[in-house]
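Task card 7
Instruction: Convert sequence to structure tokens.
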Amino acid sequence: MELSEIRTKIDTVDDQLLDLFLQRMALSEAVAAYKNEHSLPILNKQREREILAKVTERAGEKERYAYHLFSTLFELARSRQAELIAAPTRVEKRVKASLAAGGEIFPQTGMVACQGVEGANSQVACDRLLPRGNIVYVKTFAAVVAAVESGLCKFGVLPIENSSNGSVRAVYQLLQEHDLSVVRSTRLCIRHELLALPGVELSDVTEIYSHEQAIGQCSRFLSGLNGVRVIPCDNTAAAAKMVAESGSRHAAAISSHPCAALYGLECVSDAIQDSDNNYTRFICISKEPVIYAGANRISLIIAFENRPGALYELLSKLAALDINMTKLESCPVAGSDFDFIFFLELEASVKDPSVLAMLEEMERSCSKFQFLGNYAEV
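Output:
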């Protein structure tokens, strides 16, 4: 048989498949109407298992491919049913409130809480996110959250992850513990330098101060130093300020080039970070849930039953709707044996009804579901 003949037959089969698929989706809609009327859950795992068992038995040596085909069909059917079922969910309520509170333009002004002092990377992120914002400096990430929750500040800026050193778990922990909304994010290129008082040489240095993330991002350089204590502090700018105020010619700070001019220090070495491709993402949080125009990134914290296939079921929901996942990270739950929560970021908008329906289905099926926000990254 010639290739052209084979392709003609494939086209015929594809037409038949499409007709059958549309029939199946129409029947799924009828099922959704019945479930809606009788308050039944969307997921019927027992029936899906029975169908998959029958399919794999009939498919013979192609059972693996048949299994994935029908699993995808189930996801598409459930996604469509989720759009049609009227059972109320917390995420739907939150999304509607967020869209109603949002506007076409993200605010350029307002009180914003920032951990650190002048010259900190968080301050640079604040200026980028709110160019005319009034910055209130606080000592800790928890204090940023407290300032936003109390109403002292409308916004707060926090580092969420670094390309070299991973997620800032302390910030994710705060997001789990407090009902806050992520409304914006930005990404900064980070350049670390070793700063000290004028005239100090590297051989003079016996103490180096910096934030734990910066220390981790310069681990190779630091491991090559002998007889030098590395001391964590609040942030890189605070480290530079501390060294400047100490007057010690044996102290240095891992900080940024602008902090050298700001605090009267000089660069001892500018080749100290592990990677030149070093970026930190910062998020802007608010007390009230708000979604502004142009939002195309969704952040979630979820947990589900610890069983085979649970993660696949989650990922198949995204694949079925052609949603790109930009972050998936697991974190063990304190005090449990091998239980994990997951941090997810998706490229999607809740204005798409199928995306909102997927989030509602995830809320119904996950033991923990926390919608952090739908926002734009600048």
